[in-house]
Specification:
The structure holds two protein chains of two kinds. Helices cover 36% and strands 22% of the residues of chain A. By secondary structure, chain A is α+β, with helices and mostly antiparallel strands. Chain A has two domains: 78 residues, OB fold (Dihydrolipoamide Acetyltransferase, E2P); 160 residues, Up-down Bundle (de novo design (two linked rop proteins)). In chain A, strand 1 and strand 2 form a beta hairpin. In chain A, helix 1 packs parallel to helix 3. Chain B is α/β, with parallel strands linked by helices. Chain B is built from eight helices and six strands. In chain B, helix 7 links the parallel strand 5 and strand 6. In chain B, helix 1 packs across helix 2. The chains are: A alpha+beta, B alpha/beta.
Chain lengths: 250, 204
């Protein structure tokens, strides 16, 4: 195969041998790929800062049939978020985003909507770092939705009635939402009206608009949304995410 | 691997456990060992044994050393009011090569990497804060801590984290400059590096 050129978001890098890196990135044309960037750790490497995590680049690479790793040739920076990464707390949130993209995106399967969503979220975070927690929630809900793990939030999974009309909504052991009538004994995790409102807002709003809207909501409903997405992520991956939030020691 | 005698296979397997060594390189190294005189092999084995037996962490700065405290921490000629924080012992060597820094060091043995699950507790950070007190530094107050972690995402995050820990203590915390490598050409520099070079410019 010849040279492939595509936009890509760098997700993660590992050092390889003396001066090389293995790079995992989300590309527009080929989904998540893994590649080797020869000499990228050298002082005068042609890759420069282009392979730093969360950088949006114009990537060129060679792919050989039957080989898992592609050979990266060039990474021209389109947007860099390096300044965001100088904040340790921000890095831990971005690392969570990167891990989720890697875990929920099958390799070599392009998904234009995932690519656009991740780019838009990074752009929104760089414009409004103070809304990081809201935007992280937005990102998680959308990624779960695009990967098919988010339950239908409009209708009861048992009787099909609109959840807007239900006095209470519960998530059952299989991760599906049920109305009050279909949850005898109110089993499962209950979802507040405010968190359902957040889920609806995430579906219809852009990241920037949701960041403004979400800040108006209560901190409790944001935490409830975090708990909900954490349950779905744990169920989908059958483990916790490795990226843990950093806590400043006193 | 059945084609080689068992000791050769074992040696190849051991070389393969080293970082950056694949099967072919391990095989080449193993056959080199078979070819060299026995005295050379003994010297090599002796060096491996000695490094494991004699090298440990300095109890003050965490540098790798054969004497505790290390030669930097015990030297009377070093400026004890400055501490340079580096990720790895070989980063310390890079700073030392400049011959312009005369202060002390602190080696973290890694950098923060949330995606790899490496947090502050995995770094050798616990003994940095006590070092800033004069009673733990031969009566001399530390006036500046230089954060010389790598100029990448993880190094930046680590520097930011340490600066948040140190700032409330009133000590001056500085970060090494980022920018153009000497001998390079502006034409080939990426925008992030150029941006940092401009931000870190100085008056001449």
């Amino acid at each position: 195969m010849g040279l492939i050129e595509t936009e890509a978001i760098i997700l993660r890098t590992y050092n390889l041998a003396e001066a090389d890196k293995i790079v995992i990135c989300l590309t527009r044309k080929a989904g998540v790929i893994r590649g080797v960037a020869r000499g990228s750790r050298r002082l005068k490497s042609r890759f420069g800062a282009g392979l730093e995590p969360f950088t949006l680049v114009a990537l060129s690479y060679h792919e050989k049939e039957g080989r898992e790793l592609v050979a990266l040739r060039q990474a021209e920076i389109i947007s860099s978020y390096f300044n965001l990464c100088s904040d340790a707390l921000m890095v831990s949130s971005l690392a969570r985003m990167a891990e989720m993209v890697i875990e929920f995106s099958p390799p070599h399967e392009p998904n234009e909507r995932v690519f656009r969503m991740v780019s838009a979220c990074l752009e929104a975070i760089s414009r409004s770092p103070a809304s990081l927690e809201e935007l992280l929630g937005y990102f998680e809900v959308w990624l779960l939705r695009l990967s098919g793990f988010l339950p239908d939030i409009t209708r009861c999974s048992v009787c099909g009635s609109s959840l807007r009309d239900s006095v209470a909504v519960f998530m059952d052991a299989e991760g599906r939402l049920r109305c009050r009538q279909c949850s005898p004994g109110a089993l499962g995790a209950s979802l507040s009206e405010e968190v359902l409102g957040r889920l609806r807002a995430i579906r219809r709003l852009s990241p920037d608009a949701y960041a403004l809207e979400g800040l108006k909501g209560s901190a409790e409903s944001r935490k409830e949304l975090d708990r909900l997405t954490s349950i779905i992520i744990r169920r989908a991956l059958e483990r916790e995410l490795r990226a843990k939030p950093l806590v400043l020691q006193s | 691997m059945l084609e080689y005698a068992e000791p050769v296979t074992k040696l190849i397997d051991e070389f393969k456990r080293l970082p950056g060594i694949g099967h072919k390189t391990a095989q080449r190294l193993a056959f080199h060992i078979l070819r060299v005189p026995e005295a050379d092999v003994e010297r090599f084995v002796g060096a491996l044994r000695e490094v494991k037996e004699r090298i440990g962490f300095c109890s003050i700065c965490n540098n790798l050393t054969d004497v505790d405290p290390c030669r930097f921490c015990s030297s009377a000629g070093r400026d004890r009011s400055m501490i340079c924080v580096v990720e790895e012992p070989y980063n310390l060597v890079a700073v030392e090569k400049t011959r312009s820094y005369k202060g002390l060091y602190h080696v973290l043995h890694g950098s923060l990497s949330p995606i790899r699950g490496i947090g502050p507790d995995d770094l050798h950070l616990a003994n940095l804060l006590p070092r800033l007190k004069p009673e733990n530094n031969e009566g001399i107050e530390v006036s500046e801590v230089i954060l010389a972690t790598n100029p990448n995402t993880e190094g930046e995050a680590t520097a930011n984290y340490i600066s948040r820990l140190l700032k409330p203590l009133g000590v001056r915390v500085t970060r090494i400059a980022m920018g153009m490598p000497v001998g390079s050409d502006l034409e080939y520099v990426d925008e992030v590096t150029m941006d940092k070079a401009l931000a870190n410019r100085h008056e001449i």
